[in-house]
């Protein structure tokens, strides 16, 4: 009895550890903090199959002001500039425009630079092995989907700075579908001159907020019923507009689980009956379903079976 009492006293005196303590999640939070507070100049490529997109990514903290610049280096180019909570897009053959947002819509999921805790209900954070990426010591962190309807996402973080060195969408067979690989990164004490120059530039006045509230989105979505979505997805936006590709009127729905976005388009059948089917580029799937009286297109970084199930669940309201 004395032995049992002694062991019990040790347990009661031992420091308490939170049930949700997770070293993988802690590393992701450190990465988010580093991305917002460090000065760095990085180059990376996004590899999708045989295609490759090169980017340059700069970030700085000047006093209390956060500065960020992301540019696509191939083709006509694409430039994105962020000063605190305003992002300006410079796109080929269109006028520049600004929006009020705290993150650039780039190839890295925005939630990774925020509080990833919101993902924990539908994803697990798992610590992987160590390696070497871009000549730097790296730690693998895996964001694993809790079901088979979404891809996993792996990140390799710089052991010294906590910044991202590589990431990949990975299917449940362990195959990398799409990769983002840094080819160069320099962490500096002072901001890059290009970023400081942004403080003296004039940018367009931000557009009115494009996002609508959940209640408004639900009201707008009465044209169609989306009968099935993976767990955790909710409606962000819905509207009716003409597609630039063919000038056809379509009903549009945007869903998200906080990490992955899924777009659903519903329109009248196009001339010439086409069989239903999927096309993939890297992690992005485009599934087109011909129901006879209407066509459904589902686009997102999701498995083809998920896109197919969503498309086939669309029906007219009863």
TrEMBL record:
Residues 24-191 form the MucB/RseB N-terminal domain. Residues 219-314 form the MucB/RseB C-terminal domain. Residues 1-18 form the signal peptide. Keywords: Periplasm, Signal. Its main location: periplasm. Pfam families: MucB_RseB, MucB_RseB_C. It is found in: Periplasm. Belongs to the RseB family. This is Anti-sigma E factor. The lineage of its organism: Bacteria, Pseudomonadati, Pseudomonadota, Gammaproteobacteria, Alteromonadales.
């Amino acid at each position: 009895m004395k032995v049992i009492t002694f062991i019990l006293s040790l347990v009661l005196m031992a420091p308490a550890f939170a049930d949700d303590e997770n070293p993988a999640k802690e590393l992701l939070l450190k990465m988010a903090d580093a991305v917002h507070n460090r000065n760095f100049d990085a180059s990376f490529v996004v590899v999708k199959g045989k295609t490759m997109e090169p980017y340059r990514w700069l970030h700085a903290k000047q006093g209390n002001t956060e500065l960020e610049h992301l540019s696509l280096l191939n083709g006509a180019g694409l430039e994105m500039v962020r000063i605190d909570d305003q992002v300006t897009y410079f796109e080929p053959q269109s006028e520049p425009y600004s929006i009020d947002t705290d993150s650039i819509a780039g190839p890295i999921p925005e939630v990774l630079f925020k509080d990833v805790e919101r993902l924990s209900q539908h994803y697990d954070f798992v610590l992987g092995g160590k390696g070497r990426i871009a000549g730097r010591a790296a730690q693998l962190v895996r964001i694993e989907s809790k079901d088979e309807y979404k891809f996993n996402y792996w990140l390799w973080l710089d052991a010294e700075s906590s910044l991202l060195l590589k990431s990949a969408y990975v299917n449940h067979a362990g195959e990398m579908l799409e990769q983002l690989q840094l080819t160069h990164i320099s962490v500096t004490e002072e901001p890059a001159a290009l970023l400081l120059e942004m403080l003296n530039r004039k940018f367009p006045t931000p557009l009115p907020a494009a996002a609508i509230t959940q209640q408004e989105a639900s009201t707008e979505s009465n044209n169609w019923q989306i009968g099935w979505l993976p767990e955790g997805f909710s409606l962000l936006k819905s509207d009716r507009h003409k597609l630039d590709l063919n000038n056809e009127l379509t009903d549009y729905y945007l869903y998200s689980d906080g990490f992955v976005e899924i777009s659903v388009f519903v329109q009248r059948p196009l001339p010439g009956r086409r069989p239903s089917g999927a096309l993939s580029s890297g992690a992005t799937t485009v599934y087109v379903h011909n129901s006879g009286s209407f066509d459904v297109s589902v686009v997102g970084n999701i498995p083809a079976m998920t896109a197919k199930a969503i498309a086939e669940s669309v029906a007219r309201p009863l």
